[in-house]
Amino acid sequence: MELFPAVPLRDWADTKETLHRFLQVVGKIRLTSAPRRNHWWNAPYHLNGNGITTRPMGVVDGNPVFTVDFDFVDHLLVARTIDGRSASFLLPGHSVATFYREVLATLDGLGVHARIPRPRPYDLPDSGRPFAEDVEHAHYDPEAANRYWRVLSQVNMVLEEFAAGFSGKTSPVHHFWHTFDIAMTRFGERVIDQPRKAGPLIREAYSRDVVSFGFWFGDENTGEPAFYSYTAPEPEGITDRPLPSGALWAPSGAGHLALLPCAEARRAPDPRSAVLAFYEAAYRAGADLLGWDRAALDCPSGVTDRLKAKGEQWS
């Protein structure tokens, strides 16, 4: 299978915009139906064998334990409860409005009474329009949706491999429904007192110093998919640090992103190694300037056992 198949934004923009809002509908259910976790780790999706999953949720909201999965092989929305019942419906053919109503009806039929306190998009151009009124976004190309999931799955494995090299506090690899990216974050120990005006999302997400890594599919400002990394708070001089060939430091808001366009990674003799080298260079740039003890935090091949003999087997 081709590694990191091309996903130019122009080829699936309509599907992406519709699917992004579908994910936000279910993501907002997850937000109110799962225990709160530090840095919002309770909110995102995780990858599974045929799409993405909310993971089990319920109980804290008075509902039975349930999951909601997007199946991008058979193109279904699948809801399941802990007692073995399930219900599903096809993803193609829905606007955001009909999808929203169908999700709630499907869950209600399983005895799950989902709540969405603010049933409208988050941080999107139409954030003032309720999901129930959005008949504009109604395009779902199964081939494009399947390609999106395959790219997510491949990036997921690269991020898992990269995560193994760090023994400090690390987030799961997860797919964010508000920004439509997949990411993994390494955390330092320094407490960052974000100002109240930053808002609850930023204050919780960046309450410690971080170096974050991920991939996104592009938007109206960045018309191509790219691997990325950023350091927060951004230390002075980070853009003077070297990145591998094809990567660059790009302005983003008040700071900068390290970017490796997907097309550059695809051109490399070994795309996987190119992405890992990019992440490592961005990590060293941020961690060194933040003053992290990289030697103490190194975890080669996911091993912290200092006595482990070379080639020793554990299974």
TrEMBL record:
Superkingdom of the source species: Bacteria
Protein name (database record): Ava_C0101 and related proteins
Naturally occurring in which organism (per UniProt): Nocardiopsis mwathae
